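Morning - flavin-adenine dinucleotide inputs below, output right after.
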Amino acid sequence: MGLSGKAGRWSIVLDNTPQPRNDLKSNVKPYVTRIDNPRYIVIGAGIGGLSAAVHLAAAGRRVLILEQAKTVGGKMGEMHVGGYRWDTGPSVITMRHVLDDLFAIAGRDMAHYLNLHPVEPLTRYFYPDGTVLDISRDVARTLAQIQKIEARDVEGYLQFLAYAARLYRVVSPVFIYDQPPRLGSLLKGSPLDTLRIDGVRSMRQAILYARRICANC
Ligand SMILES: Cc1cc2nc3c(=O)[nH]c(=O)nc-3n(C[C@H](O)[C@H](O)[C@H](O)COP(=O)(O)OP(=O)(O)OC[C@H]3O[C@@H](n4cnc5c(N)ncnc54)[C@H](O)[C@@H]3O)c2cc1C
């Protein structure tokens, strides 16, 4: 894998030979003509482009990634303000197995590159009336927090988790873990499941509907 970041624009060349390439120029256009006939060009070095390129390189393809920004990572960046470090995008990894698979495909040990730490709580919500709600990786701990605020919402939260789990079970094999969906792949699931995925409502609409139904629970 070769890296180049002169003058603030990046190009990355991934191939299956681990030779660093120092001959890349810093302006995007010349890269394209100077690279030894890259077979694949990925536009954008966000986590999506980087992982697509790793997959291609691991499959023995020669890949060139072009990035317009000064750094790689896309939304997965950080900024430093007032002595604090802020994530500009993802702060928690919710699908660790995807990262595990990516490193495994590349034949690398993720532990050599990343230190992942469990985060507790996952998120802390502050409401205008002073209420604070910690969402934990431990469902029982989250439920105890909700119980303190409004006991009836314990059921609502469990229903929401079941609803989200159902969406993930039905939708993820088609939309997350497969090739871009086609009519054929959309018809693969059971018709009952297709009806259950609540495809015409936004999540907000679904939650508002559930709240209306449960208003007098
Ligand atoms: C505030 C926020 C919080 C988030 N929190 C989480 C979280 O906690 N956990 C989680 O898993 N996900 C989270 N996400 C989602 C996650 O950040 C994104 O799904 C992921 O970073 C998207 O990666 P990407 O590569 O698809 O796109 P991007 O990160 O947007 O990368 C696209 C890249 O392409 C470059 N580019 C675009 N056009 C061109 C061009 N014409 N030429 C060259 N380069 C180009 C851009 O500069 C950029 O670097 C969060 C997102 C946001 C905004």
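Note: The radius of gyration is 23 Å.

O.
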